[in-house]
């Protein structure tokens, strides 16, 4: 077989969460730095991702969107990212959008993604992930797209 493509599309009902999330800015920055350390990146895509002296500086990093000092979106499609996806993404507890489609990330999709209760959009399609998607706790997701493409 030249290739194996698995497409998983799941529509989940929106669930309203009344949980209060305490501010955890430093936790978000540490999680993003762990993401950077695990990924292999060229062409300076993560060049802006360096520790900044100003609080919440990570909110200006490429691909990062914040609301009230918390990371709500991490979107880096088609940026030539390789390496693995750090389990630390599961620490971005306010994350609503994670779009890392059209890169070359490999390895397992971390189970910690199941902790992202607020996730609405998850797109990991067109990477080289192996294994299954731990979707158990993604109660808010409205668009979940995971396609593991394994070339020969
Ligand atoms: C992610 O959270 C876990 C559990 O709270 C913690 O042990 C770990 O150090 C965190 N990782 C990063 C990179 O912040
Ligand atoms: C940190 O990021 C800024 C903004 O992109 C960049 O101008 C600067 O050169 C970077 N600093 C280091 C030490 O890489
Ligand atoms: C899913 O949620 C349950 C209950 O909140 C928790 O015990 C479990 O560890 C969660 N699973 C993952 C993969 O985070
Ligand atoms: C992820 O980003 C790509 C490129 O911008 C876009 O085509 C795709 O629709 C996005 N995925 C989702 C689920 O929104």
From TrEMBL:
GO terms for cellular component: plasma membrane. The keyword Membrane applies. Its main location: membrane. It is a single-pass type I membrane protein. The keyword Transmembrane applies. Residues 1-24 form the signal peptide. It is found in: Cell membrane. It comes from the Eukaryota. Residues 27-66 form the Leucine-rich repeat-containing N-terminal plant-type domain. Keywords: Cell membrane, Glycoprotein, Leucine-rich repeat, Membrane, Receptor, Repeat, Signal, Transmembrane, Transmembrane helix. Belongs to the RLP family. This is Leucine-rich repeat-containing N-terminal plant-type domain-containing protein. It comes from Eleusine coracana subsp. coracana.
